[in-house]
Every structure is written in C-alpha cells, then in structure tokens.
C-alpha cells in the first residue's frame, strides 16, 4: 500500500535497486537459533548471525516471522536484509537495551542503545520490504507518567532526558551507511537518528508512530551533526518533527561544535507531524549547505517550514535552499521562532533538589547572549504552493541579530491571514502572491530592506 500510494504521487521509481542484494548469499538468523513466534527473545541469536556475517562481509536474513529482540549491533560490511513477511519487534524491557555513550536531544550522555545500531562502523546496509517495530507504547506511557510528576516541579526540560527510551535506529559515528525500504513502526523515542556520521543514504521508508496512541518525541528522521547525507522518498506520520536538522544544544552543543552540512532531503510526504521540514531547535553547531525539495505536507501537520532555536543555543544557519513544496491545510506556512518552547528550552534546577545527574549540570551551564543567539542568513525559498493555510508568516528573531538575506521566489500562498515578519534584513520577494481573506500583505516590523512583498491585487 505504501509503495502504491507513493507511486500515485510520483515519488518513487518502480524498482528498488537495493533489493537486488536479496540474491546474495545470506547467513540465516534462524540457523543461529532465532525463532519468529513474536514471543521468544532472539537478541543473542540474531547478534550471533550478525557476527558470523561480519567475518565475510555478508548478509543476514530471516525466514518469515515476527522476531522479538533487544538491541542489535550491526558490524562493518554487513547487510541486514528484512524481506517481506519479516518483522523485528522491539523488546518492551528497557534492560534489553544496554546503555552506551551517545548524544540525545543535543546533549552527550549515556543512554540506552537503539533497537538497531550502526555504532562506529563502515559500509553497513539495512534493506528490504520487512518491518522494524519498536512496540513503543510502554515507553510512551512511562514518559507521560514522568511528565505528570515533573511539570508541576518546573522540570519539564528534564523529562526528555530522565525518561530513558530506546530509539528505533541509530547511525552513530559511522560512514557509508544505507537504510532503504523497511517499514518503521512505533518507535519508543526517535525513529532514525543519524549522529556524527557521513555518507549516509536513507530512502523509501514508511514511518508510522501513531499506531495505538501518539508516541511522544517520535521524530521521523533526525540528521544530527552529520554531513553528506541524502534523504529521499520518506513517508512519515509521527508525533514530533518529521524531517529535522540538529546540531547540539546550548553549552554542550557549543563545546562539541559540529555542524550539519551537505544534506539533501527530497521527494517526501509528511502526513502528520509538528512540521514538514524543521531546523533545530538544537542549532548550536550550525547548519549549512542544506537542500530541501519536493515535499508534500498535509493536514494535521501545523507548520510547513520551521526554524526554531532558543537564546541559549547559538549556531550559524546559512546557505539553505528550500523549493518545490506543496502544503495542504497547514496552519502556518513559514515560521521562525528563536524563543521556542521556553519550559523545555531553558534549564534551571529548582531549589531544594540534591544529587542531580551530571547532565543536569551540563544543561544548566550559562551561555552568554553573544554566543546564545542563533544567526540565520542566506536562505532561499522558491516554488511553494500552500492551500488552506491559516497564516502565511510567523517570523521573529532578535533586533541585534536579524534574519539576513532571505530570498523568496514564486510563492502562491492561500491563507486566512498574512501574519507578521519581524527582525528581517534584506529580504526579497519575487513572483509572490499572498492571497488572504482581507487582501493584506504580511505585516513587516522592526525590519529593513524587505522588498517585493505586496498585497493581493484588487479584483
């Protein structure tokens, strides 16, 4: 169904070249004791098959079935092939996800491994038409339970770090990795996290994280302080960012100082998420040379294009090219919010709390205003069509660090209201129509050099 739906939208070819690997000689996990009954815990058996395949640079495959497992660690040269009828089903016991050093939501700390891990490896593939299902509702429930305790105490910012939940797939400090084809379901936390990695290809993924509930923080694809990444033909429904660029949070992210760059995202469908394409809020290392094109963003996704940060994040965001987007019934077409979600973004330890985790102290390290302001410039947005939007623009930054040199070309925005643009400098609009109920162009405030943004011509 997924591939037929995408074919109707003209987003995928009729052939999946990665599946040609199916003809290669495979190590069957079943020969190492894996049982696809949906109940048996198969972590050791599947890992044994992976280790055996690593000796020859081979492929791991499975007979049809549902294989319950904890964390698996792919090795250099190995292909994990999940054929149609094969499901890897995540354990609901956190003890089956060993903790190891990583980065989570912009902070380096020790955290449970993902269900599928490419951790400091090279030349790894995960392919096929099978399914990777995190069975994550138990982790969603634990998060909401902790939030009920933390929010009244002023600890909203800490909940995402204290409630440990496994990601579905993590590619960490690795290179030359392909993830293409599998259906990804019910991640306990983020779905695909690419961190400190390069030469990564993500393609033809169907992500569904709202089955049996709405999984909190179940981002679709997060590209985090990584480079030379291609993301294409992703069809996603989740309960947070769908396709997101990240680069560290606050003092820790500024210490690491690793940007995300040379990333291409194209030909994706966002059906349900917090935004179609998101930059941030973890902006500390910065982003540059990012190309986004061919996205279809559908209701109930509230925002089409989102830049978000906070006044403790910092980072330089530049040379961003966004084009050829179709937005249907989103609330806001284009939003820049550099004071995003204060209860989450700004960490303060309440008085009277002792024996706090080390990462709490890391998160509460002060950042000077000069380092904490994110700087956005040289953003190009073209060929955008929005139908049924509520607001065209919701844009604000800092008077002392305006948003510089944004260029908009060939925008046709059907919206109830034009909205507001503040703290902009040298913005140009060409061939842009903002068709609002009152016929008024967006309000421009505390800005300079904004040209070409005109109201709808009189009838």
TrEMBL record:
Keywords: Glycosidase, Hydrolase, Signal
Species this chain originates from: Caulobacter rhizosphaerae
Source lineage: Bacteria, Pseudomonadati, Pseudomonadota, Alphaproteobacteria, Caulobacterales
PANTHER family per record: PECTIN LYASE-RELATED, PLASMIN AND FIBRONECTIN-BINDING PROTEIN A
Signal peptide: 1-22
Family indicated by similarity: Belongs to the glycosyl hydrolase 28 family.
SUPFAM superfamilies referenced in this protein's UniProt entry, alphabetically: Pectin lyase-like (SSF51126)
Domain of life: Bacteria
One Pfam family of this chain: Glyco_hydro_28
The name this protein goes by in its record: Polygalacturonase
